[in-house]
Amino acid sequence: MAEKLRIAVVGAGYWGPNLARNFSTSADWELVAICDLDRERAEGLAARVGRVEVYTDLAELLARADLDAIAIATPARTHHPIVLAGLRAGKHVLVEKPLADTRARGLEMVEEAAARGLVLMADHTYCYTPAVLKIRELIADGQLGDILFIDSVRINLGLIQPDVDVLWDLAPHDLSIIDFVLPDGLRPKSVSAHGADPLGAGRACVGYLTIPLDKGAIAHVHVNWLSPTKIRRMVIGGTERTLVWDDLNPQQRLSVYDRGVDLAQQSVDTVDRRSSTISYRLGDTWSPALPEHEALGAMAAEFAASITDGRAPRTDGRAGLRVLSVLEAATRSLEDSGNAASVEGAATRAEVVR
Amino acid sequence: MAEKLRIAVVGAGYWGPNLARNFSTSADWELVAICDLDRERAEGLAARVGRVEVYTDLAELLARADLDAIAIATPARTHHPIVLAGLRAGKHVLVEKPLADTRARGLEMVEEAAARGLVLMADHTYCYTPAVLKIRELIADGQLGDILFIDSVRINLGLIQPDVDVLWDLAPHDLSIIDFVLPDGLRPKSVSAHGADPLGAGRACVGYLTIPLDKGAIAHVHVNWLSPTKIRRMVIGGTERTLVWDDLNPQQRLSVYDRGVDLAQQSVDTVDRRSSTISYRLGDTWSPALPEHEALGAMAAEFAASITDGRAPRTDGRAGLRVLSVLEAATRSLEDSGNAASVEGAATRAEVVR
Amino acid sequence: MAEKLRIAVVGAGYWGPNLARNFSTSADWELVAICDLDRERAEGLAARVGRVEVYTDLAELLARADLDAIAIATPARTHHPIVLAGLRAGKHVLVEKPLADTRARGLEMVEEAAARGLVLMADHTYCYTPAVLKIRELIADGQLGDILFIDSVRINLGLIQPDVDVLWDLAPHDLSIIDFVLPDGLRPKSVSAHGADPLGAGRACVGYLTIPLDKGAIAHVHVNWLSPTKIRRMVIGGTERTLVWDDLNPQQRLSVYDRGVDLAQQSVDTVDRRSSTISYRLGDTWSPALPEHEALGAMAAEFAASITDGRAPRTDGRAGLRVLSVLEAATRSLEDSGNAASVEGAATRAEVVR
Amino acid sequence: MAEKLRIAVVGAGYWGPNLARNFSTSADWELVAICDLDRERAEGLAARVGRVEVYTDLAELLARADLDAIAIATPARTHHPIVLAGLRAGKHVLVEKPLADTRARGLEMVEEAAARGLVLMADHTYCYTPAVLKIRELIADGQLGDILFIDSVRINLGLIQPDVDVLWDLAPHDLSIIDFVLPDGLRPKSVSAHGADPLGAGRACVGYLTIPLDKGAIAHVHVNWLSPTKIRRMVIGGTERTLVWDDLNPQQRLSVYDRGVDLAQQSVDTVDRRSSTISYRLGDTWSPALPEHEALGAMAAEFAASITDGRAPRTDGRAGLRVLSVLEAATRSLEDSGNAASVEGAATRAEVVR
């Protein structure tokens, strides 16, 4: 068996422990260090994952020649300097979503990684769940046909974040998933965002995103911190079949409906236009069995494979950048009464270079 | 017992038979005639509800002096002339939703009724279901507190209508319900509408409405003809409680959640702003028992009572006009890439007069 | 088109109107009369289904030479004399469940019909629903493999019947369905019944039936009048697949699970017997689309076809007799503290004769 | 704060790690050792919970004078000797369900503990979940009124155990819960058990228990290893209200229905007995909020409190003995074709002594 890659986790707060636990049990990785400004927190985590080394100084950590990669789980506004420092020290980098707090900074990170030939991967964990991997596969196989609409709902009684609104808090999940399952990724020209802050929290607690897709299709995302019922459901309608992903129904997460509307060519002047032009398919429903694996494990494996194979990971920095581009446009739309805001081109120099 | 009011049903197509059956079995009404351009269709219906008279000529029907009212179930574009003819013949009028095909025509109808002191009622049937009546009552009683958000989803595999888009076909239900349960009715200043026609049907088959409400609240409506799963659910979030209406769950249609987010006054510079400013209520859930009655029966009773008492019915023409105003603004928004369109004032001369 | 068969409905109470409405709209049948001791009730029903003739005297009705068949919807204790009178007058007979109030009377009816070459059909309506027809087909096609267990739950807040217990009221549904879908019908040697009458209603309001099937399989039925939640679910486990029928979920009535336990041949002395002898299949779930038709219509068609073709209907008198045999044994078991009671052979002279 | 009690976990297999983790983080307990015949397994677990001591020899462990209690998570057939050894060494004992493999051995354990004034507690973990604690409280408060019926379903695709049938594997959960929530515990005179082994696994894989309760009430338990759908639901019907516990619905685990059947005194000779004697309550449904805590933590606290307070724990050895008595009778019934088997008196010398 090949030697393991060596990684350190930067940030021992909410998400860092999950990353640490995963890398520490991965067949591909050896977790060698935890880095956090708060030494006590870092040591607590280090103890729980097998007494790895502890750093409070990032530069000191990055100076280690035996380190292949870092995984960053710090607040979004700190991603830019830490990622750049990591890349400049020659380390591959995995970074929690969102990639950065602005598109411009995200772009700089992507270009830095490309210029150095290093892997920059976005931790879009949901994309590595069995359900989302299956959705991607079904769409790639043409099982759904052309995509007609995507409707995603992610609502729950949620913590009102002190620094970001509900769109930046929750929608990265939906957007990164949509980016992941669409064969060409999420590259809309514009986005409209609506929100409400009815409690006076200082930021939107209810948010809606509308995203025009190619060929007249549409994507819509509803995120909400104020709902007492929890819903996590995505419907993806296609010309052939429609898929419903109900993430809170472990007994039937995915349902593929072989039913829909067929539109025959329009006959202009019939008495009853309805019957002549439309027919329904009321076919079977099918719920594929999903393998059971932890998403974080699959993500860690993908990070390792992309380094070993010298290829972009499935959720590379540019995927993170596309999500960021939509979020940034959403914020502009929100500030402009929901009027459509153009999304800055996700095509970057990086795409040309690589 | 008082003498029954006498009514005729105009239009024997899809909805007319429901109206006819209801008025024919009502304690308040005597159904005396069916009117339809298609004599055979009118006669078929007349036979099924007890051999009432049949007309193919509206003027002839309206000439009957013993007729108190007409109930109109014809295509929307014909509402305007038929309603006006009815009113001018001195009849009270019930008209299927939407009130008219344009706001201007609806306004003319409302004003004509007001000028003549006749009842013009919109057949917003859903408003008379036990669930919606209970929602209205709960809000009026202050059980929900101030309204924070309303999210309504009405999706299903639906017939693509030959003349109207999905917003005009389905959203009148949601809008009339929202108008009915809000203490001041639905009187937004603007609305944003997004839609998609990914099958090339010639009109939106997927639609989203965003409606800013008072005090920073928001209403959102999702209607969809292309969804293989059927959902009819409205969430109404309030400062005190949040209500979920799941119309497809007969065993628990309404759930009232005594849980939510409380926002204490903002302390500016604490270390952990979250804990200092937010608290959660995780209270009980309560599902009120609903009486079992048919909505159409309650609507027929309300029509009769409004005539007898000389008062506006709960869903009067102006309610229908408010719905129409939002729909018309929605169409303008749809044509303007989803940019917010202003809603024409629902306040009419009629409101002053009456 | 062939001439229609002519039928009269006997009994205009709870179920009679459903039968009358169905026969009056059937392509195979002409409804010619309603018979009920209560003339007013008979006339009321007759008016609603198109002014057919009314009888209060059964003998008078049966004297009509132009009558081909009668459909009986009277209390169970009256089935025996009415069915025999009908058969002796040369009429084919459809009779509501249960076939009779005792097995002996049921047997006499079956033998009388056989001796006269007339059709005696049990109105096991559920068997003609799209779901049950599909279950029968799936089992016949071997899709489930050998049947391992059947578990049926039918509970609801129900009217406490004045004359029969919950087993006789509700279990005929489950038993007739099980009889219908099992390739060889329901022919158990014994049955155990447990019940409770905790309200002192004078009869069991909660009931459980346990029925040993061939090859070590088992069927179990739970019926309950006291449950505030309504459940109608049958699970049929097979060696190949397992089927769940949830009759209250119109969006997914049938689910076929391609998952289960495989038992390899037993290896006697392994260290870990579990892993060596058992494997799990976690395959897909499949929900077949069901045609939409009314069960009563399909039943009326089957009654007509069996007469025309000179064959036994799918739910013939002997099927009704098998259900009756189990019920009668259940009552004996109930009176004997739930100890197993033998089921009298459902094989009758009739089976030999026909 | 008082000194912590000191405990060792015996058995490091499937359940032991859960016990160890819980005692190691408990405010009441200090976990001091792990004991297992397999040293490697014991050391693995010891490392994960903070490097406690490891024993492979039970006698050596029990010789520690500083040890207050042991928690046993070994196979059922070994409970008897280990518990007795623990008690005879003066240790309080917690033992995994079932208490023992025979009632006689369980009785001996209970009497030994009573004689020595030591706590013997059954690890009926489910009883300490928020849902079951709330059910117990609701019943004790009279919210349900008198209990009419209990129906418990616990089915899933389950591992076929090599040594016990499905009744002994799963029903201890249901029985211990029923024992816990009934004010007087589960003390039936008899039980009937039905089972099936349709795969030829050598033991029942599908099982049904029927248990007559006081005043004509009934309890019924359905356990099943072969069901592809997972159900864990208990319905408890009372004269006042009925409770449904759906353990797989985290959003609404408990529902209390204020609806039911009222039976007025029977009037003998009315025309329509139904209407005169029965009335329905269709009241509200209420779903109490449940605190979030881990059951094992509450159980550890109860074990500590019972020792400190010198009282019996809520799920003491006699509760375990009552469950065992029912299981043993169930086995006898199963071997006797489901005929009712008498349950040996759960009243023991221990009950007199304590």
Brief write-up:
The first copy, chain A, is α/β, with parallel strands linked by helices. Chain A contains eleven helices and 15 strands. The C terminus of chain A is likely disordered.
Structural topology:
The structure is a homotetramer of 354-residue chains.
Chain A: E1 5-10, H1 16-24, E2 29-35, H2 39-48, E3 53-55, H3 58-62, E4 69-72, H4 79-88, E5 92-96, H5 103-116, E6 120-123, H6 130-140, E7 147-157, H7 166-181, E8 190-196, E9 206-212, E10 218-224, E11 226-238, E12 242-246, E13 254-263, H8 273-277, E14 278-287, H9 295-309, H10 317-335, E15 341-342, H11 349-353
Parallel strand pairs in A: 1-2, 1-4, 2-3, 4-5, 5-6, 7-10
Antiparallel strand pairs in A: 7-11, 8-9, 8-15, 9-10, 11-12, 12-13, 13-14
Helix pairs in contact in A: 4-5, 5-10, 7-10
How would you characterize this protein structure?
Four copies of one chain form a homotetramer. Chain A is of the alpha/beta class. Chain A is globular. At the A-B interface, strand 7, strand 8, strand 9, strand 10 and strand 11 of A face strand 7, strand 8, strand 9, strand 10 and strand 11 of B. Strand 14 of chain A pairs antiparallel with strand 14 of chain C, so a sheet runs across the interface.
Strand-residue fraction of chain A?
25-35%
CATH homology group of the largest domain in chain A: Dihydrodipicolinate Reductase, domain 2
Quaternary state reads: homotetramer
- Helix proportion of chain A: 25-40%
* CATH fold naming of the largest domain in chain A: Dihydrodipicolinate Reductase, domain 2
Counted up, domains of chain A total: 2
Number of helices of chain A: 11
- Biggest interchain interface, per-side counts: A-B, 61 and 61 residues
Weakly predicted, low-confidence segments of chain A:
265-276, 346-354
Helix vs. strand class of chain A: alpha/beta
| Amino-to-carboxy terminus distance of chain A | 30 Å
